[in-house]
Each structure stands twice: as C-alpha cells, then as structure tokens.
Amino acid sequence: MLHLFLAIELIIFMALAKGKSRVRVGAPTLHTKTAIKVAEMMTNAKFTISQDETNDSWVIECDGIGLERYYEKL
C-alpha cells in the first residue's frame, strides 16, 4: 500500500500513461480527490476509486490517455 502523499504525486503520471494504472492506498483524502479531478479535467483520463474491504484499503484506478513524446527531427 502506497503512502498517501506518494499516491497524490502519481495521479498525473497515471493520467498520462498508456493503459490501465492502479495504486492501493489508505482512505483517499479531499486532496487526493481534488488531484484526481484536476487530472481528469486536464487530460480527459478516467479515474475510479473503490474500497477493498478485505484489507481496509482503497484502489485508485485510471485509464490513461497514452501521451507520447512529440519531437521533430532536425
């Protein structure tokens, strides 16, 4: 299970990544939910937060946008 502060830092990278990303955290705070909402607004990525009652944790899941680096060859 990730420390909550690390999970918040990973939100934007989850949004930009290709495919599905998942992290297991403690109970999400308002700060975490705000970071998710901002990332969704900036990238159109889709996040879900679900509770895993078997071990009292939460799973943040994201379908990322698959951002690729763009550069021009000189």
From TrEMBL:
GO terms for molecular function: RNA-3'-phosphate cyclase activity. Keywords: Signal. Residues 6-49 form the RNA 3'-terminal phosphate cyclase domain. GO terms for cellular component: nucleus. GO terms for biological process: RNA processing. The keyword Oxidoreductase does not apply. InterPro entries: RNA3'_phos_cyclase_dom, RNA3'_phos_cyclase_dom_sf, RNA3'_term_phos_cyc. It comes from the Eukaryota. Gene3D superfamilies: RNA 3'-terminal phosphate cyclase domain (3.65.10.20). The keyword Signal applies. Residues 1-17 form the signal peptide. This is RNA 3'-terminal phosphate cyclase.
